[in-house]
């Protein structure tokens, strides 16, 4: 299903997106050395509930997972990159933490992810991974607009990733979003320009470049959810929800402080 939102729905999407951005910003500030991943999940639950919103993850039970996810946010550390299921783990200096959050409010969902280093340590490889996904995300957004095709966005994202020397996995990528978290069209993190679904004003897309340092192969944890690099290398993931407008694309999941 591909949804095209009307003006009222787009206003709600901007509201939900700001909430997602603000929660992620707060969690980034609070996630320090000694923080437990289960505390992050509880903080997320509290902020979502206070905002009168709903997590898209608690009851999420796709074919690739093991039953309902049962938590409010995805927390992946170091070699974990996607669908990280919160568990008892205390963050250490230099850990690379990825937080992926999808929330629904007023009938419209928004989805975003950030990767960052905990504490004071700044391993060069980890910094490069994070910066590359952020640059790839910016390139994908810059390529978006009415008349562009999904392949144009995929090509822009993939060019940044491959030119930086990283393998690209195409099992999971970006997606349409609207009244539900995951919709068509699928947005692979590499592709051919000029191909695929043509973008229209009112379409929401969640773009999410993610990479692993030296492999394109994923393995699944015993929890049935957390996806890790097959080699144990570090990973990074950046994501924004955008709305296609009459003259380009609007990022919906920036924190409120970044909108001034």
TrEMBL record:
SUPFAM superfamilies linked to this entry: Creatinase/aminopeptidase
GO BP annotations, alphabetical order: proteolysis
One cellular-component annotation, GO: cytosol
Domain named Peptidase M24: residues: 19-246
The reaction(s) this protein catalyses: Release of N-terminal amino acids, preferentially methionine, from peptides and arylamides
E.C. number: 3.4.11.18
Any Pfam family the entry gives: Peptidase_M24
Cofactor annotation: Co(2+); Zn(2+); Mn(2+); Fe(2+)
Residues annotated for substrate binding in this entry: 83, 182
Molecular function as annotated in GO: initiator methionyl aminopeptidase activity; metal ion binding; metalloaminopeptidase activity
Superkingdom per UniProt: Bacteria
Quaternary structure annotation from Swiss-Prot or TrEMBL: Monomer.
Role summary: Removes the N-terminal methionine from nascent proteins. The N-terminal methionine is often cleaved when the second residue in the primary sequence is small and uncharged (Met-Ala-, Cys, Gly, Pro, Ser, Thr, or Val). Requires deformylation of the N(alpha)-formylated initiator methionine before it can be hydrolyzed.
UniProt family annotation: Belongs to the peptidase M24A family. Methionine aminopeptidase type 1 subfamily.
Name of this protein: Methionine aminopeptidase
Species whose genome carries this gene: Streptomyces diacarni
Lineage: Bacteria, Bacillati, Actinomycetota, Actinomycetes, Kitasatosporales
